[in-house]
Amino acid sequence: MSIDQVSPDSTISREAWRKKVEQARERAERARQEAASRPREAPPARPSAAQVATERVLNDETLQTGDIVATDKGLFVLRGRSDDGGLILQPLPRQR
Fold first, then answer.
1. Which candidate, 62, 95, 90, 58, places its Cα nearest to that of 76?
2. pLDDT digit string (tens) for 17-45?
3. DSSP letter at 85?
């Protein structure tokens, strides 16, 4: 809108303008109440220290065949790497 054009809101009466403002406030209040009544999503669970350590060891490029790998799922022997670079792990028997 250029400076020489008149805004449609400038031609309405003061009472009509107040009514529009009040309606806008009511809509905003309803929207606020609706948003407050919706349950909030729980934040994503933070990984445990064991999960973080497992992720770190599984991404370790210095691992070599025969290395023992401790994860949150137990102990494994690294048998090599697959064609896509993934680790080939063999579980170690659990000691009683």
1. 90
2. 899 999 999 999 999 999 888 888 888 89
3. S
Sign of CA dihedral 21, 27, 33, 38: negative
Q: Which of 55, 34, 38, 37 is nearest to 46 (CA)?
A: 55
pLDDT at 43: 87
Tell me how far apart the alpha carbons of residues 84 and 68 are, in angstroms, rounded to a whole number: 21
Single out the residue of 87, 36, 91 nearest to residue 64, CA to CA: 87
How many angstroms separate the CA atoms of 12 and 57, rounded? 70
DSSP per-residue string spanning 22-81: HHHHHHHHHHHHHHHHSPPPPPPPPPPHHHHHHHHHHT-TT--TT-EEEETTEEEEEEEE
Q: Any idea what DSSP says for residue 4?
A: T
pLDDT at 47 over 70: yes
Statement: the pTM of the whole predicted model exceeds 0.70: no
